[in-house]
Backbone:
């Protein structure tokens, strides 16, 4: 049954399409925001750039390692399949469970609300401040409803076939790549002679942490040695999540032409393109704005990167290029970016639940493809739960909780390369992980170090994340027992 249903997928995506899915799923709203928090955590322009460089390097290493698994097992579900085959069905289920409960759906909800927030800049009727319903302390804003509407529209488009999703993905991804390239080039041209670059790098290795409370500076202390290393690991949380979702292309392996070749290539080139864009964006920020500033300053130069209003560094930098029109221009760009990002997340995520259902580990109806050869029921389930998270307003908190859990699953998956080399030494490997065993081992060590760092210094976020994962264990056994009774 499983093999027949997978054969009904239509292989409609080539190398270019797959690469656009990787790029489009990665670039959301993070690149326009998280540099402010990184600058407060590290206080050094060089360390800020190094955060993005290291993030890019380890993400590329991860992508190269995933390529081997993708070429070995080019099946719908991607990472879920790799974990199941490397370890056991329960480990695969725990990943799929966490993906559905918050990793994928929470990200979709957060990106949808970001889309709605920036739409509110153009059309104030969709502002978060426009409260449509209030019961006690529970509020529903126009932004939340617009976020849900965007999810329904994208789900509807993808319900009617992979080609629709592909057209959307290519269109929005190319648009935002060109827009970002334009801002980077214009920014570097405008910044010529501004003096901000020289000023920022006059003391580029001096690191410090700025502690804020209620929008005011309460402490600034210098970083060095272990303290600097710890702060560097914590600062990577934002850059890692801005660079996440690169693995989504593995979820749709059943719909990619020549997946044994195209998935590894699209993973590498997609991550490389995004890494280059992110690094150039931050170079543009440092060319257009001072890193340091005053949170109470009236203008963007006075506030600097550290204290950009609402952390919107992208808007602050754009105002140096476009003046008063910056807010509108950036709002349009972020709307395009987030809408395209969500298309990729919605398109790919449903394939994991479909694969789980085929193994008897999700609702039975999710295991079927509709007449357009896509998992329509899975798309609907995903849309409903992501919409609930939009209304709850808790998606942001939940995403913070699963930071370490996401890294743990990446570590387990890359460790699976080593395990499967032992378990299945004779298996066909059209592509072998570049730099094996050194590069995959380096990723595992760095990712583990970040997890330990976060567990020590952000325990309040990490422990709930692990609890979400562990909560899937009893659910797994309930599903297995039901499956056994049905057979």
Residues:
């Amino acid at each position: 049954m499983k093999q027949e249903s997978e054969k009904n997928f239509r292989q409609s995506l080539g190398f270019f399409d797959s690469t656009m899915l990787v790029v489009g799923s990665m670039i959301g709203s993070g690149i326009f925001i998280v540099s402010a928090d990184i600058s407060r955590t590290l206080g050094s322009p060089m360390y800020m750039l190094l955060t993005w460089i290291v993030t890019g390097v380890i993400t590329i290493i991860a992508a190269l390692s995933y390529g081997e698994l993708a070429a070995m097992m080019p099946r719908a579900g991607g990472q879920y399949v790799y974990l199941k085959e490397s370890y056991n069905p329960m480990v695969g289920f725990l990943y799929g469970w966490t993906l559905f409960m918050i990793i994928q759906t929470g990200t979709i909800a957060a990106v949808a609300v970001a889309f709605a927030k920036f739409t509110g800049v153009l059309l104030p009727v969709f502002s978060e401040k426009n409260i449509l319903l209030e019961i006690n302390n529970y509020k529903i804003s126009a932004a939340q409803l617009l976020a849900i509407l965007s999810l329904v529209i994208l789900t509807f488009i993808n319900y009617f076939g992979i080609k629709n999703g592909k057209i959307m993905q290519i269109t929005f991804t190319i648009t935002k790549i060109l827009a970002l390239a334009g801002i980077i080039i214009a920014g570097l041209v405008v910044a010529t002679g501004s003096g901000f670059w020289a000023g920022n790098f006059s003391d580029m290795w001096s690191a410090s942490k700025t502690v804020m409370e209620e929008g005011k500076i309460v402490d600034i202390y210098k970083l060095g040695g272990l303290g600097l290393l710890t702060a560097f690991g914590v600062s990577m949380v934002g850059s890692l999540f801005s660079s996440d979702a690169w693995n989504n292309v593995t979820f749709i392996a059943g719909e990619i032409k020549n997946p044994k070749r195209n998935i590894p290539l699209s993973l590498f080139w997609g991550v490389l393109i995004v890494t280059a864009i992110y690094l150039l964006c931050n170079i543009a920020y440092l060319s257009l704005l001072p890193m340091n500033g005053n949170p109470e300053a009236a203008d963007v130069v006075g506030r600097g990167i550290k204290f950009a209003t609402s952390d919107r560094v992208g808007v602050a930098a754009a105002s140096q290029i476009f003046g008063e029109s910056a807010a509108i221009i950036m709002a349009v760009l972020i709307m395009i970016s987030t809408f395209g990002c969500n298309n990729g997340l919605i398109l790919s995520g449903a394939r994991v639940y479909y694969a789980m259902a085929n193994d008897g580990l999700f609702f039975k109806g999710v295991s079927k493809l509709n007449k357009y050869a896509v998992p329509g029921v899975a798309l609907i389930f995903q849309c409903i739960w992501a919409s609930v998270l939009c209304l709850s307003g808790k998606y942001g908190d939940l995403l913070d909780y699963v930071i370490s859990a996401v890294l743990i699953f990446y570590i387990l998956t890359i460790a699976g390369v080593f395990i499967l080399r032992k378990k299945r030494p004779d298996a066909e490997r059209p592509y072998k992980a570049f730099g094996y065993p050194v590069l995959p081992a380096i990723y595992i060590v760095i990712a583990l170090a970040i997890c330990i760092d976060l567990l020590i210094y952000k325990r309040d976020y990490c422990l709930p994340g692990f609890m979400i994962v562990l909560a899937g264990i009893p659910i797994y056994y309930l599903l297995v027992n039901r499956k056994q009774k049905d057979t």
User: Anything to note?
Assistant: The beta strands are 131-135, 138-141, 208-213, 216-222. Residues 2-486 form a domain with the Amino acid/polyamine transporter I fold (CATH 1.20.1740.10). The radius of gyration is 22 Å.
